[in-house]
Structures are given as structure tokens and as C-alpha cells.
Design brief:
The complex is a heterodimer.
Chain A: H1 3-8, E1 15-24, H2 25-43, E2 49-54, H3 58-73, E3 79-82, E4 112-120, H4 124-133, E5 141-149, E6 161-165, E7 173-177, E8 180-187
Parallel strand pairs in A: 2-3, 2-4, 4-5, 5-6
Antiparallel strand pairs in A: 1-8, 7-8
Helix pairs in contact in A: 2-3
Chain B: H1 7-30, E1 43-48, H2 54-65, E2 69-74, H3 86-95, E3 100-105, H4 110-117, E4 121-127, H5 133-146, E5 156-160, H6 167-178, E6 182-186, E7 201-204, H7 207-210, E8 216-219, H8 235-242, H9 246-249, E9 257-259, H10 282-303
Parallel strand pairs in B: 1-2, 1-3, 3-4, 5-6, 5-8, 6-7, 8-9
Helix pairs in contact in B: 1-5, 1-6, 1-10, 2-10, 5-6, 5-10
The chains are: A alpha/beta, B alpha/beta.
Chain lengths: 192, 313
């Protein structure tokens, strides 16, 4: 669970308490490798493919995915980052703050954009990201890669590449880190 | 941030927050479609009791790039001409349903008074000789972007000219010193405030002695419209004693930058060709002004809602 969601989800600014590890570091790396192969297979190579990581949790995953793609195809796949904050549908309802400056220094016309995020939950972040991408051109297609799909969608959005389908309760939280994926809760206690 | 009335309300943390959010809006402004839906459905009113080009247009551009609706009020074409009081004017506009008011007025303190009357967020866009906080924020941002030091801490800033009548100078002194810069005011004694007690600044009457030691030289406009008494023998004498001529600009260290809040009197406080030197960042101040005002509007109207709804998911 990215800092963005943690700050925006009740209890605001709470702390993630891990309960159970659901993927270890090797599982995570294997999932990234597999997704890389699937991207190459689906797009018949990586020509005109760009990766866009969603701030903040999707950005390190996008970079690891680019390494995997380069190892498979020996081509360098551009990696950008996108902060969807100005497109969120909960502005004015709960605290929202920009996390990082968006970096998409190319025209997206006629390219295939693979959005990369750590956890897919309600789908609202992806909805905002699709809206935001329009400011950078008209991609030929947009695909979605996530490490964990935890269900509970509130919009008609589905991922194209999934590391792991993880059934969760609504009040649980999922944290994707370099050393694996953890299931747990966000608690108010440690709030300062 | 409920209102933005004075730089002092923000403090160091508040200024840093505006700077950080401004970075995101600079990126938005560089896109081929520089518009985001963040303030859809919000209405922002410009209430300008004084003439303005860049501040009013800058706020309007900022609001439009955030997808807010804007309303403009200018005294010359309004019921103020029929004798309506400030309070009644403000309450009338508020009754139309607005989220923010951008106020400029010739009297110091008016934005505070307006903030007492309305529920909407109030932004001070200049009150008399007193304050102009968004100008100070965009100046801080511009120095951080354009000076090689990338920070104000330890920089030496000379503010030259009509300090007495300048709200920009008052807000800038507050902001620059909060962020750790040293400030020297350079002006003839008649253009300094009667008392500088409590101002964390040095004063000099010798521009040639100050320039070799500064990182930023900030020129103020000679405010002819506010000068009711004879404070200067003539503008030509001012230019001869305090103007940034080409000769004086050559005294500046290599990486020093030249700033001006506009509108410039070319040939008075700044020589025409100095205003166009690469080290002059005056047009970049204007460009950054839009992004800074987007950040301020976003922080006031979107980032921290008055009531936080408890949503799941």
C-alpha cells in the first residue's frame, strides 16, 4: 500500500501493521519477470511500449519491470511516473496532497502505455490515471499491470497483467515492498 | 491554510509546502494541455479595488488551469460607483455562492476585514503598502529555481528602491528572512519607512558598495502614484544614484540574478538593456507566478477540506 493511499484512507495518516507475508522477495521478482514476458507476448515485442508508474507505489515496480523487459528483449523501455492527485474524485472530501512531480517527457500519441501500480483496489486511482494520460496525447492503447489485485472494485476497470490475485477484506491493507508483499491492517494507534 | 493574508501566517513550513506543491503545478503548466480538473465546481472571485494586470491575470489563469470558474469584479464598472460599501459588495458577491475571494485594495488590512465577513477563503493580492504574500511566494520560488544555490539559506538579497510604499518589499523581507537569507535595503532615506525597528535587515544608501556582494538584486518599481509628497528631487536623480544601469550591473557577481515585481519603469529603476540580460529573471517570475497561485488555490480549496468525510475504500 503506497504512502498515498495510507495518507488518504481512514484512519488518516495511520500506520500499517503487517500480519502475514503473502509473497516473499523471490515471489515478487518472479511475478515481475512473468509480467515482463506477458507484456512482450501481448505486444509482439516492446516497440512503442512505455511504462508509466503511478506515484508512489507503482514507480519502483515500473523500474523493476523495465529491467525485466530489457533483459528479455535487449531494448530500453522508457519509464515515466504519474501523480494522479489533480484528477482524483475525492478532492474536497478528504485530504489530498501531491506526492511527486509527474514525469512523462514524451508525446504518448500512437504508443502503448502500460500503467504500473502496486495494488489494485477500488479502481479509482486508475480511473484518475486514464483521465490524466489524456493531457499527454492519445495512446494507441493503455494496459494495466499490478502486483496485487485485492478485489473490491468500484468501477468497471480490470488489470491486463496481475502478479497475484489476493482475496482481502475491505478493512485490510496490502503493502508491497522491495522484500515482498504483506497483508495487514492500518491502525490509528501509532498516529502522531 | 484557511486564508492567505500574510506571509507571517504561513511560517517556514507553510512556505516550504507551497514550494513543494508548486513543483507539481510547474509540470502541469508545461503540458500541451495545461489544465487539470482539481477545482471543478469551485468559484473564485477577483475583487480588485486597484489597477492590476499581472496579478489579476495570473490568478485568473491559475484558477482556469485548475478548472475553477472565475468571476471578475472591477471597481470602475460596478455598483461601487453608485456608492455601495465594501461590506455590502462582499456580502452580495458571497450570496452568489463562491469558494474564494482574491482581494486587492488600496487600504492596508482590508483582506482581514473581508475574512471576518465571509465564509469563503480570502487571498490577499495586495493591501495598500502592507503585504502581497503571493508575490513573495513566487519570488522565493523563482530564487530557488534560478539561483545556482537552489536555496535561500545564506543568500544575500538587496532590495533596491521605493521600500516605503512597497507591499512587495514588506512581504519579501518576511519571506526571504524566514527562509534564511540576509536582506539589505538600498534606498534614499526618504523612500525608507520612518522606522525599521524589528525589521531583520541592514540598510545602505550606496548601491555600488552593495552590488559586488549580493546573490540577488531585487528592484522595486518607483510608485509614482503613491508619492504624494516630493520625496525625490527628480526621477533622473534617482536613476543616477540608485538605478541599475549597465555599468552597475557589471559589478554583480557572475551568478547573481536580477528581479523585479513588474511593471517595470525601464530607464528609471532599471536600464532597458539590463532588464533583458540573461541574468534577469523577470519574465520567469511571471511564469512561476501562475504555478505558485495554482498551488495556493489548490492548498486552500482542495487539499484540506473543512470537514473530512469518513469514506471506506
Amino acid at each position: 500500500m503506497a504512502e498515498r493511499e495510507r495518507a488518504a484512507a481512514p484512519p488518516y495518516g495511520g500506520v500499517f501493521i503487517p500480519r502475514k507475508q503473502v509473497m516473499d522477495a523471490d515471489d515478487l521478482q518472479r511475478a515481475i519477470w512473468r509480467i515482463g514476458h506477458e507484456i512482450v507476448e501481448r505486444n509482439h515485442g516492446v516497440t512503442d511500449v512505455v511504462l508509466v508508474g503511478l506515484q508512489t507505489g507503482g514507480v519502483p515496480i515500473a523500474h523493476r519491470l523495465a529491467e525485466a523487459l530489457q533483459a528479455v528483449t535487449e531494448e530500453v523501455v522508457p519509464v515515466g511516473s504519474l501523480d494522479v492527485v489533480f484528477y482524483r474524485d475525492d478532492i474536497g472530501i478528504r485530504p489530498v496532497m501531491p506526492e511527486a512531480v509527474t514525469e512523462i517527457p514524451w508525446d504518448l500519441d500512437h504508443r502503448t502505455v502500460v500503467l504500473v501500480d502496486d495494488v489494485l483496489f477500488t479502481g479509482r486511482t486508475i480511473r484518475a490515471a486514464l483521465d490524466a494520460l489524456q493531457a499527454y496525447g492519445r495512446p494507441r492503447s493503455v494496459q494495466l499491470a499490478v502486483i496485487v489485485d485485492r478485489g473490491h472494485r468500484e468501477l468497471p476497470i480490470r488489470p491486463d497483467y496481475v502478479g497475484k490475485n489476493l482475496p482481502t477484506r475491505r478493512n485490510e491493507a496490502v503493502d508491497v515492498r522491495d522484500d515482498g508483499v504483506w497483508l495487514g491492517e492500518v491502525t490509528k494507534e501509532a498516529r502522531r | 491554510m484557511r486564508h492567505l493574508l500574510s506571509v507571517a501566517d504561513l511560517g517556514v513550513d507553510g512556505i516550504e509546502e507551497v514550494m513543494r506543491v508548486t513543483d507539481s503545478f510547474v509540470e502541469v503548466s508545461e503540458r500541451s494541455i495545461p489544465k487539470v480538473p482539481a477545482l471543478r465546481g469551485k468559484t473564485i472571485v477577483s475583487l480588485f479595488y486597484e489597477d492590476s494586470t499581472r496579478t489579476r491575470l495570473s490568478f485568473e489563469t491559475a484558477a482556469k488551469r485548475l478548472s475553477a470558474d472565475t468571476m471578475n469584479f472591477s471597481v470602475s464598472s460596478s455598483s461601487v460607483k453608485k456608492g455601495e460599501s465594501l461590506r455590502d459588495t462582499v456580502l452580495t458577491i458571497e450570496a452568489m455562492g463562491i469558494d474564494a475571494v482574491v482581494v486587492r485594495h488600496a487600504s492596508a488590512g482590508v483582506p482581514w476585514q473581508v475574512a471576518n465577513w465571509v465564509d469563503a477563503a480570502v487571498i490577499n493580492a495586495g493591501d495598500g503598502w502592507h503585504e502581497h504574500p503571493t508575490q513573495a511566494l513566487l519570488d522565493c520560488y523563482t530564487i530557488r529555481k534560478e539561483h545556482p544555490a537552489r536555496s535561500l539559506a545564506g543568500l544575500h538579497v538587496a532590495i533596491v528602491g521605493d521600500v516605503k510604499h512597497s507591499r512587495v518589499a514588506r512581504s519579501d523581507v518576511l519571506a526571504f528572512t524566514l527562509l534564511g537569507a540576509r536582506v539589505t535595503l538600498v534606498a534614499p532615506p526618504t523612500l525608507l519607512p520612518p522606522s525599521l525597528e524589528g525589521w531583520p535587515v541592514k540598510v545602505s544608501h550606496d548601491i555600488g558598495g552593495v552590488l559586488p556582494d549580493v546573490d540577488v538584486v531585487y528592484l522595486l518599481r518607483m510608485q509614482k502614484e503613491r508619492q504624494t509628497e516630493a520625496l525625490l528631487p527628480s526621477l533622473r536623480e534617482y536613476t543616477a544614484m540608485y538605478g541599475l544601469t549597465r555599468r552597475r550591473a557589471a559589478l554583480l557577481p557572475d551568478d547573481a540574478i536580477v528581479m523585479h515585481p513588474g511593471p517595470m519603469n525601464r530607464g528609471v529603476e532599471i536600464a532597458a538593456e539590463v532588464a533583458d540580460l540573461p541574468r534577469s529573471v523577470i519574465t520567469r517570475q511571471v511564469a512561476n507566478g501562475v504555478a505558485v497561485r495554482m498551488a495556493v488555490l489548490f492548498l486552500m480549496l482542495a487539499a484540506n477540506p473543512k470537514e473530512v468525510a469518513v469514506l471506506d475504500g
